[in-house]
Amino acid sequence: MIEYGGIVNIVTLVVFFIYLCLSLYLVVRQGLGHNYAWICLSVLSLCRLTQVALDLAATELFPPKTAPNTTLESGVAILTELGLTPLFMSTASLLNMTSRPKGRRMQWILILLHIPLLASLILIVAGGIDPDSREGPTFASTEATKAGVALYCACFVVLVWATIVISSRLYLADPLEVKILTTVVLSMPFFVVDIVYMMCFAFEGLYGSQRFNVISGDVTLQLCMQVTMEVARLREVVTDHDYEQLAGTFLWKAYEKSSAIIAVTVLPALKFAHWLLGRILRP
């Protein structure tokens, strides 16, 4: 009989296989020069498919709560953390697809963001798993792995700042750029939950509750905080919208409402201040 964790793994395999097919289709359809974001999503899907396949094998080979930290589970732990790299790169690439709202300086910031992302990937692979956690069904990160995940957190702060700055220039965007920015903004809450899970996953101590432990931790917690969040983000990114309906997107509606509020409140106040200043300075 398949255990609960095995069922979750099977469903996850099916879902990420579908998104792998969709992302590969987008790579072919977009052509050279516009498919880097979709390539990153394809890499993420492959990473998650490999991770879940290894986890499913370990789940079926060993009884629940007793599986030792084998090479299979060590690979699952490393791949779980590495999945953030293509997720970050795809988001940064989507923001780079904008032109006028982004500006040249922000373009270089988003490009240079790939350097700490690659550094964090190297640290996680090199760090691996704490040898002291291999004797039982436990997981603990090394200091190098923790440093890599901390770099992820710093990159996320930069990514949020870049999203806010570019979205504040929405009035310069064309309809396609409005679509891209709306996709990124709507996916950010799911990204936050995924980042929080990865931080707990990496910094949970060997002698802690081990609820985020990839080997014998809480499967429901992982399902809700990692798998569901990443699937929701992928759905936001790969869903194709009708360009003629872009004016009805969330971000554009928010921009229109904020502009209306400014027109009703700020502009009359500025006119009054201008009139009052003219009366005071009148000879």
User: Could you estimate the helical fraction of the residues in percent?
Assistant: over 70%
Biggest sheet: strands, sense, closure? none
> In the CATH scheme, what's the topology name of the largest domain?
Rhopdopsin 7-helix transmembrane proteins
- CATH top level class name of the largest domain: Mainly Alpha
Radius of gyration computed on alpha carbons: 23 Å
Give the quaternary arrangement of the chains. Answer: single chain
Provide the succession of SSEs.
HHHHHHHHHH
What is the rounded distance between the termini?
93 Å
Overview of this structure, please?
The protein has about 280 residues and is an all-alpha fold. It has two domains: about 5-245, Rhodopsin 7-helix transmembrane proteins (Rhopdopsin 7-helix transmembrane proteins); about 250-283. The protein contains ten helices and no strands. The chain has helices at about 5-30, 35-60, 70-80, 85-95, 105-110, 115-125, 145-165, 175-205, 220-240, 250-280. The chain starts with a helix and ends with a helix. Mean pLDDT is about 75; it is low at about 240-245.
Q: Could you provide a short overview of the structure?
A:
It comes from Lojkania enalia. This protein is mainly α and 283 residues long.
Question: Key features?
Answer:
283 residues, mainly alpha, Rhopdopsin 7-helix transmembrane proteins, 2 domains, DUF7702, DUF7702 domain-containing protein, transmembrane helix, membrane, transmembrane
